[in-house]
């Protein structure tokens, strides 16, 4: 995306008196951060407009200021612009009423897998949707308030793996520097994200004991519904928050966490060397080159995916 794309996005927003911001279900820090950040940037840039944010519960990211979704009536969509954030698939959008809006727009940093909205602003070179939204603000001369800066910085940190992932670029650090000009409490962010109760440490220890390996050292864990209950976690929390417990095992370059849920089996795929996204896409999912997900329909499909990942791992020299 370039400056003209960002300015065109601002022009589209400028035509609407009501803007309703959506993001994906079971949100992570980037989804909540980009939604809250964009909401406050637009409220400051367009004080005459009605800027709203909707979706399911923010969960563990509820510490982000003003992250609680708002109640919006169906009638408010009639002449509104709905903006969808951080979502590569329509099935993942929290609150399907975005389809009722007069016009729709999407900002996303996932690999493009098909058009969702009337206006698409997607760029997978960004480490996070928060980085994309911050760049949108920078290119349009929009100033964030402290709430927006805190929210965007949180998503920048979480989706970049604390600036460790290879998606991080010089632009990432420039955007972080820009956000740090505005007053917010970084210590509160890091404490909220990474401080753990001892019970959480014990859960991770139990999880580690259950890691298995394929012939070519794909690390994997299969969690049943009862496992999730014993961990005291929802399937979605167990699926996403535990997958990177398997990261940084010497000789392991692909790892996957399978978790049973009402819809089937959640699969969270990760790699540090190879593009695993095509495997996720083949099973109806998507995401990034080295971090993707899918919902599988049976235990048989779990082993099919494991076989495909094992074949990829065999190619790694």
How do the helices and strands line up, and which of them pair or pack?
Layout: H1 3-14, E1 18-22, H2 29-45, E2 50-53, E3 81-85, E4 103-108, E5 119-122, H3 129-140, H4 146-159, H5 170-179, H6 186-194, H7 198-208, E6 212-213, E7 218-223, H8 225-231, H9 235-242, E8 254-261, E9 264-271, H10 277-282, E10 286-287, E11 291-296, H11 299-315
Parallel strand pairs: 1-2, 1-3, 3-4, 4-5, 7-8
Antiparallel strand pairs: 6-7, 8-9, 9-11, 10-11
Helix pairs in contact: 1-3, 2-3, 2-4, 3-4
Keywords:
alpha/beta, 5-stranded parallel sheet, 11 helices, 317 residues, 6-stranded mixed sheet
Please summarize what this structure is.
The chain is α/β, with parallel strands linked by helices and 317 residues long. It has helices at residues 3-14, 29-45, 129-140, 146-159, 170-179, 186-194, 198-208, 225-231, 235-242, 277-282, 299-315; strands at 18-22, 50-53, 81-85, 103-108, 119-122, 212-213, 218-223, 254-261, 264-271, 286-287, 291-296.
Your description of this structure?
By secondary structure, this protein is α/β, with parallel strands linked by helices. It is 39% helix and 18% strand. It has a six-stranded mixed β-sheet with strand order 6-7-8-9-11-10, sandwiched between helices. Helix 2 runs parallel beside helix 3 and helix 3 (129-140) packs across helix 4. It is globular. The mean pLDDT is 96.
